[in-house]
């Protein structure tokens, strides 16, 4: 795999302007500003988390240090659904919406709503997994908007780090949801029982159970999909490199 890092990859697949919008300087400038802002936000978050670990030698209270910036950066990612739906980037808006919703839901529907879930190993797991992933992802998108090739090492990181980070993140997410379920069940949080004036019933506890169950079929499919994307991008890059060498 070390040979892959030497490959120069020209415009690998990923969110970037379509042919029409690429000619629009305003759109490109906006996308550059968005990706740079997110890249800097997640980088600052990583610096804060590493500093916390070194100072306290513990992951406890880690969330408190990054809560506000995490909420801002991850909630702002809702814009990526708009980017996909309006054609500013070439991404499947349904897949984008699912990925963004799952994170926004965890931050607001679990961590913010159930404060007892904010400390502990589960939060540390998905915080570090998300942060490393997003720093790489937004840096990758930034370079894909610029003229010329994306740095080969960055491409390799983009399509390799998920192998370990994705399972770690999912594990932390599930642990956080499991920790919230008893609280939601006992408090009947965000639940509406009949009869009521809206004639509508909703049980947040059952919804969380459904979310947990949905991880079973969804996680393997997304994981396999990312491996397929990795093979396609890195194999194609290797072929181009070999052709140039010949």
Notes on the structure:
- This protein has helices at residues 19-22, 25-56, 62-76, 78-85, 93-112, 121-144, 152-158, 162-187, 204-245.
- 28% of the residues are buried.
- α6 (121-144) runs antiparallel to α7, α6 packs across α8 (162-187) and α8 packs antiparallel against α9.
- It is mainly α and 246 residues long.
- It contains nine helices and no strands.
- Belongs to the very long-chain fatty acids dehydratase HACD family.
- GO terms for molecular function: very-long-chain (3R)-3-hydroxyacyl-CoA dehydratase activity.
- It is found in: Endoplasmic reticulum membrane; Membrane.
- Keywords: Endoplasmic reticulum, Fatty acid biosynthesis, Fatty acid metabolism, Lipid biosynthesis, Lipid metabolism, Lyase, Membrane, Transmembrane, Transmembrane helix.
- InterPro entries: Tyr_Pase-like_PTPLA.
Question: What's the average pLDDT?
Answer: 87
Uncertain segments of ≥5 residues (pLDDT<50)? 1-14
Q: Based on helices, strands and strand pairing, what is the structural class? A: mainly alpha
| β-sheet strand percentage | under 5%
Count of discrete alpha- or pi-helical segments spanning 4 or more residues: 9
- Cα end-to-end separation: 20 Å
* Morphology call: globular
Query: What is the gyration radius calculated from CA atoms?
Result: 20 Å
Largest sheet: none
How helix-rich are the residues, as a percent range? over 70%
* H-E string: HHHHHHHHH
Q: How many beta-strand segments?
A: 0
């Amino acid at each position: 795999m070390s040979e892959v890092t030497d490959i120069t990859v020209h415009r690998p697949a990923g969110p970037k302007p379509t042919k029409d919008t690429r000619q629009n300087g305003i759109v490109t400038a906006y996308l550059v500003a968005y990706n740079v802002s997110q890249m800097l936000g997640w980088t600052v978050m990583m610096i804060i988390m590493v500093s916390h670990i070194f100072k306290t030698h513990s992951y406890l209270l880690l969330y408190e240090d990054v809560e506000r910036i995490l909420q801002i950066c991850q909630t702002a990612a809702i814009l990526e659904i708009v980017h996909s739906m309006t054609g500013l980037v070439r991404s499947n808006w349904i897949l984008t919406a699912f990925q963004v919703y799952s994170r926004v839901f965890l931050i607001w529907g679990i961590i913010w709503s159930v404060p007892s879930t904010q400390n502990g190993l589960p939060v540390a797991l998905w915080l570090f997994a998300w942060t490393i992933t997003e720093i790489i992802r937004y840096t990758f998108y930034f370079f894909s908007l610029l003229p010329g090739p994306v740095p080969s090492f960055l491409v390799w990181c983009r399509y390799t780090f998920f192998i370990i980070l994705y399972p770690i993140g999912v594990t932390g997410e599930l642990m956080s949801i499991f920790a919230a379920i008893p609280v939601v069940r006992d408090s009947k949080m965000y639940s509406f029982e009949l009869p009521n004036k809206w004639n509508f019933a909703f049980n947040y506890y059952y919804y969380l159970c459904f979310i947990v169950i949905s991880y079973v079929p969804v996680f393997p499919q997304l994981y396999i999909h990312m491996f397929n994307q990795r093979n396609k991008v890195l194999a194609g890059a290797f072929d181009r490199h070999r052709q140039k060498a010949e």
